[in-house]
Amino acid sequence: MFGHFGLPELLIILVILLLIFGPSRLGDLGASLGKGIKGFRKSMKDDEIDVTPPKEESKQINDPDLETTGSRSESKKNAQ
Description:
- By secondary structure, this protein is mainly alpha-helical.
- 61% of the residues lie in helices and 0% in strands.
- Helix 1 (7-21) packs across helix 2.
- The longest helix is centred in the middle third of the chain and has 23 residues, at 23-45.
- The mean pLDDT is 75.
């Protein structure tokens, strides 16, 4: 339905955009759109970043000074 744009249709769209935005603002919009597309393509090409910590750092910390949420609520109940 809308997939067949020829040269006359594209020229009409360009003229309408020039009337609405003006030549200077239209150039800024085109530059911004180009930068956005370039950034999107770059992000699609980049490899995924692995954020999982190495096995050495994933060990659980056993510090008696640190309390978990459950032990705090139990200690408050015992104090009252």
